[in-house]
Amino acid sequence: MNTFLSIFVTVISLGTIFGCLTLLIWCNKDKMGMEEGAPTGHTYDGISELNNPLPKWWSYMFIIMVVFSLIYLALYPGLGNFKGLLGWQSSNQDIRSLEESRAASAAAREEGRLVQYEREMVKADEVFGAKFRELAYEADGSSYRAIADIAQDEEATKVGQRLFLQNCAQCHGSDARGARGFPNLADADWLYGGTPEAIKATIMHGRKGAMPAWGDSLGEQGVQEVTSYVLSLSGRKVDPVEAQKGQARFAMCAACHGMDGKGNPAMGAPNLTDNIWLYGGSRAAVEDSIRHGRAGVMPAWNEILGEDKVHLLASYIYSLND
User: Fold this and answer.
1) Same domain, 310 and 181
2) Is 65 annotated as a binding residue?
3) 146, 272: one domain
4) Could you tell me the residue range of the domain that residue 233 belongs to?
5) At what angle do helices 196-205 and 307-319 cross, to 10 degrees?
6) Degrees (nearest 5) of the Cα angle 266, 175, 304?
7) Are 203 and 311 part of one and the same domain?
8) Is 311 known as a binding-site position?
9) Do 152 and 190 lie in a common domain?
10) Which among 81, 132, 234, 265 could disulfide-bond with 6, CB atoms 3.0 to 4.6 Å apart, if both were Cys?
11) Annotation-wise, does 298 bind a ligand?
């Protein structure tokens, strides 16, 4: 907050509090020069106004609230750029990466500042961390339980589902069936493999798509021909002559998708023969993928969630394909 806004907020806040206090004091003074309880001479609809002061309980409550507000503003941030005597803040501000967040947290601890979000995260780990470990590890705590076994554990999968809804549903949907550009996790069709280990690795380390743009290399006619051939691999009706020409050009695609077009999980290259399309299966969508390429990014969750949570999350996702 710049200096002007800081001063403006401070003046408005304190001005309002002291203005209300001044009004209260003014209202508590008898300016009528009359005996308490005497009629003022103001009558409306048969009701006569009396010269009575404000109720003392109300006045005292008002003064208490004024004192409370001043103490609160002194202890906590609220007056412009003033940070408060306690050094409390809701969270570390202007954080753009995990590295910055860790550095800010370490600085806050060294300076004795109270960062509410960080304290709540530490408390949550103390309360729930043990439960995550209990569900993820073998009884003796020596190693992780097999993901396939956890997938049969109703309690563990419910925990994994909550983790999914909190962290993954924004992209993959609450039902895990994905959307355009975000894979369906419930159809047993996997770009990088659907084994428990592959699913966990994907969540832990993330994925970066690398479908290059072929528009300049193929030219517009070449894009049309390769599109026809690609569509024909999944049984779609296309111009057979155009598809034949596209097959000859498909050699540049076979390095990733294979000569048979069935893809390569090691590279995340999709199977082009199953009529399942990440970015849409219309002719226009396939042309766009070939012409401009695709570079989808799946973020890594290891440093955000930790391996215990990732292990349970992978188990839930694996359970969707049982």
Assistant:
1) yes
2) no
3) no
4) 215-295
5) 130
6) 60
7) yes
8) no
9) yes
10) 81
11) yes
How many domains is the chain built from? 3
211 a known binding residue?
Answer: yes
One domain for residues 70 and 203: no
204 known ligand binder: no
Is 20 part of any known ligand binding site? no
> Do 191 and 304 fall within a single domain?
yes
**Shared-domain flag, residues 172 and 305:** yes
Residue 27 annotated as lining a ligand binding site: no
Question: Would you say 171 is a known binding-site residue?
Answer: yes
| pLDDT confidence of residue 169 | 96
Q: What is the pLDDT of residues 51-95, one digit of tens each?
A: 788 889 999 999 999 999 999 999 988 888 888 888 788 887 778
Residue 322 has pLDDT above 70, yes or no: no
Give residue 88's identity as a one-letter amino acid code.
W
Q: Output the CA angle 269-271-272, nearest 5 degrees.
A: 110
Q: Give the pLDDT score at 294.
A: 94
38: which residues sit within 8 A by CB, 6+ positions away?
50, 51
CATH number of the domain enclosing 155: 1.10.760.10
| Crossing angle of helices 154-167 and 116-136, rounded to 10° | 150
Spatial distance between the Cα atoms of 128 and 108, rounded to a whole number of angstroms: 24
231/286 same-domain check: yes
On the question of pLDDT at 31 being above 70, the answer is no
